[in-house]
Design a protein that fits this description.
- The structure is a homotetramer of 249-residue chains.
- In chain A, 24% of the residues lie in helices and 28% in strands.
- With 249 residues, chain A is of the alpha/beta class.
- A 9-stranded mixed β-sheet of chain A has the order 2-1-3-4-9-8-7-5-6.
- In chain A, a hairpin with a 4-residue loop joins strand 7 (167-174) and strand 8.
- The N and C termini of chain A lie far apart (58 Å).
- The mean pLDDT of chain A is 97.
- Chains in contact: A-B, A-C, A-D, B-C, B-D, C-D.
Chain lengths: 249, 249, 249, 249
Amino acid sequence: MNPIRVTVWGENVHEHKSPKVAAVYPDGMHNTIAAGIRELLPTAEVGTATLQEPEHGLTAEKLAATDVLIWWGHMAHAEVADAVVDRVQQRVLEGMGLIVLHSGHFAKIFKRMLGTSCALTWREADEKERLWVCNPGHPIARGIDTYFELEREEMYGEPFGIPSPDEQVFISWFEGGEVFRSGCCWHRGNGKIFYFRPGHETYPTYHDKNVRRVIANAVEWARPQGQWTGVSHCPNVKTPVEPIKPKAR
Amino acid sequence: MNPIRVTVWGENVHEHKSPKVAAVYPDGMHNTIAAGIRELLPTAEVGTATLQEPEHGLTAEKLAATDVLIWWGHMAHAEVADAVVDRVQQRVLEGMGLIVLHSGHFAKIFKRMLGTSCALTWREADEKERLWVCNPGHPIARGIDTYFELEREEMYGEPFGIPSPDEQVFISWFEGGEVFRSGCCWHRGNGKIFYFRPGHETYPTYHDKNVRRVIANAVEWARPQGQWTGVSHCPNVKTPVEPIKPKAR
Amino acid sequence: MNPIRVTVWGENVHEHKSPKVAAVYPDGMHNTIAAGIRELLPTAEVGTATLQEPEHGLTAEKLAATDVLIWWGHMAHAEVADAVVDRVQQRVLEGMGLIVLHSGHFAKIFKRMLGTSCALTWREADEKERLWVCNPGHPIARGIDTYFELEREEMYGEPFGIPSPDEQVFISWFEGGEVFRSGCCWHRGNGKIFYFRPGHETYPTYHDKNVRRVIANAVEWARPQGQWTGVSHCPNVKTPVEPIKPKAR
Amino acid sequence: MNPIRVTVWGENVHEHKSPKVAAVYPDGMHNTIAAGIRELLPTAEVGTATLQEPEHGLTAEKLAATDVLIWWGHMAHAEVADAVVDRVQQRVLEGMGLIVLHSGHFAKIFKRMLGTSCALTWREADEKERLWVCNPGHPIARGIDTYFELEREEMYGEPFGIPSPDEQVFISWFEGGEVFRSGCCWHRGNGKIFYFRPGHETYPTYHDKNVRRVIANAVEWARPQGQWTGVSHCPNVKTPVEPIKPKAR
């Protein structure tokens, strides 16, 4: 098989506004996420793109050469151009995998793909999160024990406003008492979509070895198994396969 | 139970541009569809709304008082204001039923709810369509025989660019050789969505007794069983249920 | 609408072997569950059936007159006759609702309907369970706050060996650290299936007002919306609708 | 990747009772199906098993060494031992792929995995079947044009008594006027299941190049992406992760 081509998209705003975030992610969150994938999937071709680049770094050429797109955004969702969202949606429907992280639950592209509110409840309180594996045989859970923990994370709680997931990979238990569907899979068109909850910008979540493992696994799971560029065509097939009888009016 | 409150939305353009369409639907397609529902569900409160009205007739008040919205559009999809689409989507997620007819497969609201291309193949050739019931016990198929036929219809063929339906109620056989998933159900948020294929504007489809039966059945199926206006809220729940231990940094 | 006809099936073994269980459920668990439904749905016609009755109380006549069947079993799953399981399955496919409680996750009928292992992890440790509502607008969650708690319950944990639920109504948080998909909906044939986790025999769970509310809501949700007794027929339709051309061999 | 290990299971009865079938499949249907896979997937390790062998050729060892099992049965479904069905089900839940062909819709293993009646309508009339691709980007449709035809086949028609497919790959148009969901995918446990309609024993269907292509594609699609042999374990996890407070009684 060819190497998987991954693009990690980062909003890249918190890192420049908050010294606390910059201290945890001195290279930017997108670069840390990309480094984690390179570490675990050495043959993958991993690049990055950010909000600040022309077309947010997601030109038609770049997307055409991307097998799996990873998305982290939070405070600047509204600044993402609709034309770029249209283009990413089209590529997902054609077959590109899409992995949406944490606060990306409110990204335009995630809401666009799912059609629901994607709302949830939340709390920032340095609390422990424990992610349980709902299916130890799922490729995204490969190498993960029955659960793993993050010592400090933001809490996300149910209700989570999503269509019923096609597959449930993780559910989180929070120290403060909540639960959340933390790892969810959907198929849309020819694309596979994975939402993975952890990753608040003030915590070192994307340095965590289990989180890195899950993201790398998800990249392998989401790589296209088939593609179809005609997914949005609506052809007029004037010539029928079978003869059509003239009708009396 | 309270009477079902139905709003039939019609694009209402073809009827005024094409004498052929005006001859088939002298009162407008929306009024013919509404009349069919009133005939079969005499206790329902059935109103209409059209593209040309302020806010396309779909004000917040009107939607709040609508249990099931029916949508027919075709040549003017692009003229539907995004703000109205946002509002309809919100109401569907809260619990309002949505029935999308025929060329509404490309309506902004349908694509918004499903997140996919909603593309298909098509042909206008006066051909026979036979709709097979995939589950005779489904409430939307009540009173329909194993199949029913429309002597002349536009053809819609697979591939149909939709997420896998939660329930398949009808599949069509076309004289010219194609097939199509003609009756599809989805759940999104608290709303039920039904897509029903027939209804090309130049044919008397909405005068057909089986088509009227299906639409009336779908209205009863799609009426809200539960509602939740908070579906898009994203509350910060600062106080945890359980105590959270202070963490060392 | 006609009154809902409910049959509560109880294994009725623990109550006679364990003084502890008999103390909590002196009338038998099935009668306590039935009393809860009668309390909240006064117009419902609620009966019971037990393992010890001829045909386990589930004759063809009884099932034909049942709209929603509730199932609690645990230590005697293997004693349920396959012929009765066949009959219940057939009625669910025709349209009867099925509500499976707690240890019924390993009942023959539950495994039969779902086709998977239905396995889980468990612990008896007098621990607190908090059930979160995943969709406050779902009819099964009507009248339930954002969550409710059971002070002492058995723990069930993920992985839960089920097909992906069509709708997720509750997820549980356990004091000991686990999570579980506690309220799950599926559609099979014309029947609606709801699995509801709580109800270990040594705890007064079926006296709890929230648990009773959920079960009553589920009864209303699961009542047949349509039925089809021919669901298992496989007819030879010798006469085609369209002419078939003779083929050269 | 390792070679895919495929076992083609054949009932192997018609071939010995009917000269007509023997003429079309002188080596037995299972061997013809196996030959088609070997032709298109030369690196696959393809074996066969039949009803007549001890344990129907599906010993625990054989199944443990099978990545994808293909199933064709018809007149002797009832002769398949339940213990073998149990074993196959367990392997599918662990991760083995399962491809069920044609009259296998009524095989014990298919009904076991799906939990529904799997009933349909049928007719033997030498009629043309046209299979439409519902998603040209699906890996099972790779190399198939927008549709393909079988000049003479048995007809299977809706309603087809199955749970809603996770993915719809093909829908058939029949000359005699019916339609059918001909290519359906489900996930159960870690196993992928594909049902493929064509293959009546008196027709040369498994010699057809498109049918062979679809089966080979399905083999690649269904190969395990992950496996979990503990899928049916129900462990008592006595030691909680978090401390549990003693409760007052």
